Amino acid sequence: MPQAARSRDSKVEGPKIRFDVILDWITGSPASIRLHSRIGQYVSKLQRWADIIVSSAIDRLVFVKKIIWITLVLAQPPFIWAQQPFYTDDADVTPAGKVHLETFDEYDWLQHSQRPHRKQNTLNMRINYGLGNRLELDLDSPLIAIINDTTASVRRPFGIGDTNFGMKYNIRPERGTSPALAVAAYIETPTGNSENGLGSGLTDIWVYGVVQKAVSPLLVLHLNGGYLFTGNTSTGVVGIAKARGHVATIGASIVRTFTRTLDVGMEVTGAVAPNTNLQRGQLQFLVGGNYSVHEGLTLDIGVLAGHYVASPRIGLQIGFSFNNRQ
């Protein structure tokens, strides 16, 4: 067989490639070690940058939440958290030269022990005027209609009730964790007819304090505590009508804003006379809220229920408030 043919048919084996040896040489070479070191440095830098970015983002998020909180508290329109229909007063006062108006009609079903008095309707109007220096004046007087049963000599007494003159001073606004504080004093003059139950026939002197705190941007708590030095708490035949001595009063309300035009809350108010001859005490619950009809004008609605003879069994209140406290 020719030599050329044998060469074509024979298998010629070349040098074998040892990949494991090459890999060991690459990973163990000085160049490879330097490369690994640089890669580790780059990874460490990237990790530090990522930590800085995440930490900065968290700090910014906390800062933004604080800004949102402050903005929500300060940017609320003046008609949010209005006092009416709640009897618990707020710490706000009307600015100098401004007028704040409230009017409401309340229809009450009286306790059975109040007979011959069965029902009472109270139409009330209140005017606040700002004197400046965190001081305001108050004037309010009700128009009362009482529905009696057939045993009463006068079936439907109707007329003006006792008139209130008051003054409120804002001691300080709310700052940080410190609540807003205010103090108020009222003198009620006996302008109503006491013979048919429209008035008390007494001059009342009442002083109370107000604590107001925003527990969240949309939730506000009000607390009142006062003392009636003379007279009683009656409006018509509702209230402690037989008091001739000192009466302690207390009230608490919590109001939540759901939208820029709607807030809803609840409250509990009470009064107690230390003398048992002054006809027990007074305890009343109310659920209600405000709806903004127009900027500065709200529709106020409340449903109330009471315990003891000095409070109505159930009542319905509807009114309007015109706020100009800017």
Give a concise summary.
The chain has three helices and 13 strands, in the order H-H-H-E-E-E-E-E-E-E-E-E-E-E-E-E. It is α+β, with helices and mostly antiparallel strands and 326 residues long.
Write up what this structure looks like.
The model is unreliable at about 1-10 and about 70-80 (pLDDT under 50). This protein has about 325 residues and is an alpha+beta fold. The chain folds into 2 domains: about 25-70; about 75-320, Lipocalin, CATH 2.40.128. Strands 1-2-3-5-6-7-8-9-10-11-12-13 form a 12-stranded antiparallel β-barrel. It has helices at about 5-10, 20-30, 30-75, and strands at about 100-110, 115-130, 135-150, 160, 165-170, 180-190, 205-215, 220-230, 245-260, 260-270, 280-295, 295-305, 315-320.
| Name of the CATH class of the largest domain | Mainly Beta
Distance between the termini: 119 Å
Largest sheet: 12 strands, antiparallel, barrel
**Helix amount:** 10-25%
Output the helix-strand order. Answer: HHHEEEEEEEEEEEEE
CATH architecture level-2 label of the largest domain: Beta Barrel
Average predicted confidence as pLDDT: 81
Number of helices: 3
Strand elements, count: 13
- Supply the helix-strand structural class: alpha+beta
Radius of gyration, taken over Cα atoms and rounded to an integer in Å: 38 Å
**Runs with pLDDT <50, length 5+?**
1-12, 68-82
CATH superfamily of the largest domain: Autotransporter beta-domain
In which order are the strands of the major sheet placed? 1-2-3-5-6-7-8-9-10-11-12-13
